Amino acid sequence: MCGIVAYIGERKAYPILIKGLQRLEYRGYDSAGVALVNGSINSYKRMGKVKDLEEFVGDSSTDGTIGIGHTRWATHGEPNDTNAHPHTSMNGKFTLVHNGIIENYAHLKKELVNRGYDFKSETDTEVLVNFIENIYLEQKVDAELAVRVALSKVVGAYGLVISCADEKDKLIAARKGSPLVIGVGQNEYFLGSDASPIIEYTDQVIYMNDEDVAILTKEDLVLKNIQNDAQKPKIQKVELTIDEIDKGDYEHYMLKEIYEQPTSIMDTIRGRITMDKSKIFLGGINDEMQKLTTAKRIIIVACGTSWHAGMVGEYLFEEFARVPVEVEYASEFRYRNPVINSDDVLIAISQSGETADTLAAIKMAKEQGATIIGICNVVGSSIPRETHAGVYTHAGVEIGVASTKAFTSQVTALMMMAFTIGQKRGSLYDELYKQLINELTLVPEKIKTILEKTADIKDIASLYKDANNALYLGRGYLFPVALEGALKLKEISYIHAEGYPAAEMKHGPIALIDENMPVFVVATKDKSYEKIVSNIQEVKARNGKVIAVVTEGDTTIKKMADHVIEVPDCHEAIAPLLTVIPLQIISYHIAVLRGCDVDQPRNLAKSVTVE
Ligand code: F6R
């Protein structure tokens, strides 16, 4: 959460900061701000989005070749101009942008108040900037030492960039828990919460490690840790391209990402299935294959949509690999003293690779001896760096806050893992193994046929755009799809939606059903088909409106449902990849028709780096 960008070099900093903030806006959009070093340090900050900041800056002077910028997802203090970053210390010595949370800020604030400091904002960041200044002034040390001393006393997470009024030719950056990337140019450096604000200028980057401190001038970079030990900067080539982060002709990133799924799933599969479709090879987990095939238990941890992918994973691993699986919300798992054994394998699923709770869950399980496998999308992010092995999903950059293509790529990766482990454990016989591989490779083409139905799906969306509530039902592999469909609807259209296993409906939710209740039923042909047909009848008997996702050619459900959306036939284990697509499209169109900000829904952020 929160996006940071900074520049030091010979170009004008302001346009670089603004463009960078626009690229990072997916991380938070409660307020935006910049500080420009030009003789003095001038800050501009505004509640709202980056475009509001630009309007506010207007014709004011934006000169300066050094600057820092921030886009905020509020933690401490409501979104307003005062709480916006950058924050400047009381005596004007330091200006700072921060992503993360300073947990002991209340204690530090009390100490600073006793020393005569007063505060304008409600933020933990303003406490930090004053804490640094207080050390600087009282201990009469240079800016770098003041920062390092302060950070050694801080409890919490931070990615920070700091400018000091007495040392205007440099920027100091530090990271613990929140990501920070340095872009290396010719006589210039860039900083970003990820590489997206940097790639236009350089493909050479350094991913900062926890407790790294970087001191940057335009000519030089010194990397050390908080204890002052020199660190060797590891410069890497970043693979991201501008095209990948461009919206192209699409109205929203979410729509672009929905349409990218034939390609993104192909990219997840690419190079991992042999040409003759007889074998899966997952290079990233090959070294840990022994652990995976002998594991007594698999624990899957994740949050949100990634957790729904994990639930599909549970069904897959139990069916094909015959290993007991537990799927855990990372936030619950890490705080409930779980039993973890050294023959457990923990699979962490995360699009961003930065989700704070998932990261903390991994660290805890690792300390207790479990083998940690990651399924992540963002290469080089924090989670893959903490795992023993992993599978990158290679879905490409996902910018829309509501996850779509990341989900289908995560499920694809889980399928490949489950089929591989099942085959190696001897619980998945060869013929079915090959059939499943073949079916998986057919998914991208099948998704294309579903995408061709977008206009019809939009018509259905227009009938239900004014609903206040919605119910999503599914069974077996399709229950997690129902959960995901409900999450997609609620997060972008603000319609209250619940996902349920269809048979659970009669244990409570059925009381909600009346003629105003749209019930989305995911009901493709599988072993519980007859059962879900009965569930549809139960809804219809109470005058609920049924929108069913069915297998092509289904005539039974067509007769009873108000609307059907057909998807191509496939093995039931593959069905989540197809059935989720119409639900994504329906949510997208309902949200657009309601006038919602689809790519940046209220209160959300793409990368949840606070717990
Ligand atoms: C929903 C959504 C979130 C994320 C969750 C985990 O559309 O995007 O629920 O799935 O915040 O994020 P990652 O996968 O980055 O760990």
Layout of SSEs?
Layout: E1 3-8, H1 13-24, E2 31-38, E3 40-47, H2 50-57, E4 66-72, E5 87-88, E6 94-102, H3 105-114, H4 124-139, H5 143-153, E7 156-164, E8 167-176, E9 181-184, E10 189-192, E11 204-207, E12 212-216, E13 221-225, E14 236-237, H6 253-259, H7 261-269, H8 289-294, E15 297-302, H9 304-321, E16 325-329, H10 330-335, E17 344-350, H11 356-367, E18 371-376, H12 382-386, E19 389-392, H13 405-425, H14 430-451, H15 454-464, E20 469-474, H16 478-493, E21 496-501, E22 518-522, H17 529-541, E23 545-551, H18 556-560, E24 563-567, H19 575-593
Parallel strand pairs: 15-16, 15-17, 17-18, 18-19, 20-21, 20-22, 22-23, 23-24
Antiparallel strand pairs: 1-4, 1-10, 2-3, 2-4, 5-6, 6-7, 7-8, 8-12, 9-10, 9-11, 11-14, 12-13
The chain binds fructose -6-phosphate.
Fructose -6-phosphate is lined by residues 303-306, 350-352, 355, 358, 402-403, 487, 491, 608.
